[in-house]
Amino acid sequence: LTNHGISGSLFAMPIINQPQCGILGVGALQKRVIVVTDEFGRDSLAIRPMVYLSFVFDHRILDGASADWFLAKAKDTLEKWG
Predict the structure, then answer these.
(1) Can you give the chain as a three-state secondary structure string?
(2) Catalytic residue among 4, 63, 68, 76
(3) Is 58 an active-site residue?
(4) Among this protein's residues, is 4 annotated catalytic?
(5) Per residue of the chain (82 residues), what is the pLDDT tens digit?
(6) Alpha-carbon span 70 to 22, nearest angstrom
(7) How many angstroms separate the CA atoms of 42 and 59, rounded?
(8) What does DSSP say about strands 22-26 and 2-3: parallel, antiparallel, or unpaired?
(9) Which is the catalytic residue, given 43, 59, 68, 76?
(10) What is the pLDDT of residue 18?
(11) Domains of the chain: which residue ranges?
């Protein structure tokens, strides 16, 4: 895990430290406007904190499907938190 967002950066491609097979990068947290749909199907605008996550991995060690599963699980966990 590396936090390049501490310097205000939104995106980055962190470098894998050997012998690790992957590294998760976290960008700067920002408030953004998004469309939220309620239980009746009505859309409204809402302000939510959002962040970009990047996962760099060694494809010789980790399969793309496994890497995708990991990043999707991290995303779901963060969205449901709090």
Answers:
(1) CEEHHHHCCCCCCCCCCCCCCEEEEECCCEEEEEEEECCCCCEEEEEEEECCEEEEECCCCCCHHHHHHHHHHHHHHHHHCC
(2) 63
(3) no
(4) no
(5) 999 988 889 989 999 998 999 999 999 999 999 999 999 999 999 999 999 999 999 999 999 999 999 999 999 999 898 6
(6) 11
(7) 42
(8) parallel
(9) 59
(10) 87
(11) 2-80
